[in-house]
Amino acid sequence: MAGSAALSAAALARPALAQGGPTELSFFYPVAVGGTITRVIDGYAADFSRENPDIKVMPVYAGTYQETLVKVLTAHKSGTPPTLSVLLSTDMFTLIDEEAVIPFDGLIRTDADKAWLADFFPAFMLNSQTGGQTWGIPFQRSTIVLYWNKELFRQAGLDPEKAPASWVEHAAFAEKLTKRDAAGNVSQWGTQIPSTGFGYWMLQALAIEAGEVLANQEGDRTFFDKPGVVEALRYWVDLAQKQKVHAPGIVEWGTTPRDFFEGKTAMMWTTTGNLTNVRTNARFDFGVAMLPANKRRGSPTGGGNFNIAKKSTPAQQEAAFRFAKWMTQPERAARWSIDTGYVGVSRATYNTGTMKDYVAGFPAAAVARDQLEFAVAELSTHENQRVTKALGDNIQAALTGGKPPERALRDAQAEAERILRPYR
């Protein structure tokens, strides 16, 4: 990556921002995962504005990712969108279809800019680029990982240093870790996979491990009813309904970490974005591992990208680009990863002394990065909110026993096909 001298030269080569006061940069940021990070974002905004007095960054905390998207699109339609926003990388096609964002390519002018862009992990760019253009810049990105309680493993006679490596092991470990009284009442579940909010994401992980992807890269076709996807949902359903090692029905995304902290579940599948939250709040030794494999290893990527509003001035767009680039410089990206648990978004992040020292003392921080070798793009299509809702609703129908997995996925595929046919 370019050094400070090169960056200074690059800055001089860039167009000057408007004179007569700092350019105001409105920045919508979602607060959606465990841990309070608004103070961190406020600190970065203040630091950037001190280093760049021609730009004033104004963070706005807009709720969940879904709420933030609605607010951004509403503001876009009214003509006053935030210049910069962090939205799910999977919203890329929606933002393009709404003509709400610009590609970054026109702002990438120097060799330093090109080197910066080329250093992001390729798996993260799958949900950031389409049609030969870059529509989002990876910022708080993640994969799904497995967390386990080492103390509960030890109590169950399992090796506390060994996570389940396969679906078979995962189910077998969960059986040993589930605690029932004489009446069959469960006080501790073996495993927990949340199904609200991001149920489609969890199913996608299982489908990848069963050898299937849920959609094409063009975002206009889904494969929800493929045999491997059915196998994936059946495995998930069977953990609860057949093997009874997973809580029945719907498991909440937001309360899953708390259930883990309270010993209500011995294993959980969730985002690496919860890593710092778990490290801070778990009162026991815990492990972090790649997800168990079936036909292969795998996880979808996840998390949010920086996006720049089309309905903003050239000066605002330039300011937004400078802030996004500043936020993703290796040392800062390393610090952000440590503070939040998100994956460092570039190779250079893991070559910093800061990150090397952190990983040496806390090897779990490298698990999500290493899993990128097996990662695929998160499910992303045109009208992504409607498509993922159709899938999520049918996943929940299967988990609650309302539909068998085969029918649930046929219904989800039929609805997705209806939504996406016009885009082909």
From TrEMBL:
<dbReference type="InterPro" id="IPR050490">
    <property type="entry name" value="Bact_solute-bd_prot1"/>
</dbReference>
<dbReference type="Pfam" id="PF13416">
    <property type="entry name" value="SBP_bac_8"/>
</dbReference>
<dbReference type="InterPro" id="IPR006059">
    <property type="entry name" value="SBP"/>
</dbReference>
<keyword id="KW-0732">Signal</keyword>
<comment type="similarity">
    <text>Belongs to the bacterial solute-binding protein 1 family.</text>
</comment>
<protein>
    <submittedName>
        <fullName>ABC transporter substrate-binding protein</fullName>
    </submittedName>
</protein>
<feature type="signal peptide">
    <location>
        <begin position="1"/>
        <end position="18"/>
    </location>
</feature>
